Amino acid sequence: MALINRLWTHFSGDTKQLQKQTDALKIGILGAANICNMALLNPASKLSNVLIYGIAARDRQKAEAFARKHYIPKVYDNYDQLLADPDITAIYNPLPNGLHYEWTMKALRSGKHVLCEKPMTNNAEEAREMVDEAKKQNRLLIEAFHYRYHPFCRETVKNTISNRDENGPIRSITGVFTVPEKFLQNNDIRFQYPLGGGAQMDLGCYLVSMCRYIVNTHNNRTEQNEGEFEVQKAEALRVSPTNPQIDRGMRSEFQLDGIQCNIYNEFTNNWSFMKQQLIIECEKVTITIAYLIAPVFYHYLTIRQRDNGQTRTIKNYGDNQSTYYYQLKAFAEAIRCFQNDASLDRAYEIVYTTGTSAIRNMEIIDEIYRKAGLLVRGTKN
């Protein structure tokens, strides 16, 4: 019954967008991507201070059909026309990874705040340029690592990892994220190098982000003063001779601020269920975190004592909303904060998956690809 209640809360949004505040944040969407419903439209339907105001797509007819289905007021001929609309305050960019840089830069130069899907771009060099442009334009640039905003992460995981007295020092972190590829076509954007494809980009970016979050929390650091990293080795899995730069999976080992991290991600070629898990070996305990990526459906955190084997399990469903709901809520609140006092620093205290954090994530991903003998995304063959 509890699961049914959570699923109902998550999927019951009415995209007619009724009862919006007169000063609601107006967001424009670049592209009619599949993720829009889950990541933006459904959460926005539950927030009176957010209005999905307009959409543009490569095919106007597709954009019109999408707008009719989801009651979006305006459709534009192209992305540039949408960006030129002064009524739009913020942009959601769910385009393929390889297009994030171009259109996020254009959005920032148009004076828009940007919520950009993860990973923020092809590589670290592009991420640095995007961050510089956001500072120049005095606009928010946010990477959509939605899991960070759910109470399970920002309360339960944070409080557990911060308890050094009970846990002792972290010895190692092991992360796994697998998704069956049977639901994906061979021409899926995830498998196209020009569009920034690869398992490490799509799945592995989460594991790198999660490892960083755990290490920074444990070491009492912020993403503005992270410790050093070193990628020791990486192995690309199931690379096709006909698509030699695309990894269907990746294993990698690296150190973050002196802590060993070993991660594995793959689009598996079987009918296995999705698996997402982190195992954190500490001096006194072993902490297991399951399904941090989508805790609204199911999750748990277990703490097992090394000395006596006693285990306790913690869950935190908050008010049964999705990670995307909490992310969008924070994004809107951060923009309102910025509009009230013109301080990006204060706004970034509310919405904290920043472009600066994206640079470090991409630095690690770039190095994983190099160690695996593959090209950094965005590099010409």
From TrEMBL:
Which residue numbers delimit the Gfo/Idh/MocA-like oxidoreductase N-terminal domain? 25-143
Q: Keywords on this record?
A: Oxidoreductase
Would you say which domain of life the source belongs to? Answer: Eukaryota
Which InterPro entries does this UniProt record tie to the protein?
A: Gfo/Idh/MocA-like_OxRdtase_N, Gfo/Idh/MocA_domain, NAD(P)-bd_dom_sf
Entry-linked SUPFAM superfamilies: Glyceraldehyde-3-phosphate dehydrogenase-like, C-terminal domain, NAD(P)-binding Rossmann-fold domains
Q: What class of enzyme is it?
A: oxidoreductase
Recorded E.C. number(s)? Answer: 1.1.1.179, 1.3.1.20
The record lists the catalysed reaction(s) as:
(1R,2R)-1,2-dihydrobenzene-1,2-diol + NADP(+) = catechol + NADPH + H(+); D-xylose + NADP(+) = D-xylono-1,5-lactone + NADPH + H(+)
Q: Which GO terms describe its molecular function?
A: D-xylose 1-dehydrogenase (NADP+) activity; nucleotide binding; trans-1,2-dihydrobenzene-1,2-diol dehydrogenase activity
Spell out the family assignment given in the record's similarity comment: Belongs to the Gfo/Idh/MocA family.
Q: What is this protein called?
A: Trans-1,2-dihydrobenzene-1,2-diol dehydrogenase
Q: Which organism is it from?
A: Adineta ricciae
> What lineage is on file?
Eukaryota, Metazoa, Spiralia, Gnathifera, Rotifera
